[in-house]
Amino acid sequence: MATAERSPAVLVRGLTKSFKGHDVLRGVDLEIEAGSVFALLGSNGAGKTTIVRILSTLLSADAGTAVVYGADVAEQPERVRAAMSLTGQFAAVDDALSGRENLLLVARLRHVPDARGVAESLLERFALAEAADRRAATYSSGMRRRLDIAMSLIGDPRLIVLDEPTTGLDPEARLEVWRTIRQLAADGTTVLLTTQHLEEAEQLADRIAILHGGRILVNGTLAELRALLPPATVEYVERKPSLEEIFLSLIGGGTAPRGEAAA
Fold first, then answer.
1. How far apart are CA 53 and CA 49, in angstroms?
2. Which CATH class is domain 10-87+158-223+240-262?
3. Which of 187, 99, 197 lies closest to 143, judged by CA?
């Protein structure tokens, strides 16, 4: 007996949006498989954040459709908001509260049963238990971002949107966030990642779409995108360590991204 094809987590067709006569989105099509990491690449002004705002019901499209786990963004916004969570470019953490208090606040606002139990579970999951009672103002940038993502997971959203999640982070903190994103996907959460950093998409994404001028230029796996260019010429050259590898080696922050990929 044939197995029914699973519906995509996100399905976007013909999405357009203009601001004051300027076309930001010009017919965007996207399909994101449930439980995958999908990277949306583009330079500043390409339209990435506009897509995110439409998917999260913060902005209305001029034309086209967007569906999140079977719920139409325009017609069923409450169902969409219940299915997803958005983490912006800057951590939405209250510095005056401790890590535990930040989590408890969000859990109670979302009327989650056993708010304290949920907070304790997330503190353990994101390696923040030892710092749980410290004010968030004392956290490193990587810890703050991990706390921010943990707060986004309260209520068990099926889709989490990370809009430029490593903006402003140092190399060590960026690796922390990358590990967190990998774990989210391993646990079955669908992740939509917007980024300007090509290596970030290369390291994390199951599929990658490149957005430019309000249109999707290409959409595929890393292998499919590589196949668009002629085969590389094999040359034997002396490879020198990158500055990032030197930095991480000296501070004892683990291997550089290239080493992680090879593990």
1. 6
2. alpha beta
3. 99
pLDDT higher than 60, residue 151: yes
Q: Which two tokens stand for residue 245?
A: 């590898």
Give me 65's structure tokens: 């459709």
In the structure, how many helices (H) and strands (E) does the chain have? Answer: 10, 10
pLDDT tens digits, residue range 205-238? 999 999 998 999 999 999 898 888 777 677 777 7
pLDDT over 60 at 74, yes or no: yes
Name the region of 60 (left: φ>0; alpha: ψ -120 to 50; beta: rest).
beta
* DSSP secondary structure letters along 161-201: EEESTTTT--HHHHHHHHHHHHHHHHTT-EEEEEES-HHHH
Q: Give CA angle at 246 (242, 252), nearest 5°.
A: 140
Q: Phi first, then psi: what are they for 243, rounded to 5°?
A: -60, -35
Residue keyed to tokens 């939405």: 92
Q: Are 253 and 142 in contact (CB under 8 A)?
A: no
pLDDT digits (tens, 9 = 90+) for 160-179: 999 888 877 788 878 888 88
d(CA 152, CA 144): 12
Q: Domain coordinates of the chain in residue numbers?
A: 10-87+158-223+240-262
